[in-house]
Amino acid sequence: MIQKLVILGVLKRRPSTGYDIKKFIQKELGVFSRTEEIKSIYYPL
User: Whose CA is closest to 35, among 43, 23, 44?
Assistant: First the structure.
């Protein structure tokens, strides 16, 4: 559920590809969570 909300938040900023979303999450939110657990961004999309 949290992953879906994060993705929606990223998409609210601007349209992005799955790759861009994953890179943004790893770069900006990696400090707060274990981003290595994000294996596929496309299923929640």
Answer: 23
pTM: 0.66
Task: Please say if the pLDDT value at position 45 is more than 80.
Answer: no
Phi, psi of 20 (to 5 degrees): -65, -40
What does the DSSP 8-state code read for residue 41?
S
Q: How would DSSP label each residue in 13-36?
A: HS---HHHHHHHHHHHHTTTS-GG
Contacts of residue 25, defined as CB under 8 A and 6 or more positions apart, other chains included, come to: 6, 10, 35, 38, 41
Written as six digits, the tokens of 18 are 């799955």
Residues in the chain: 45
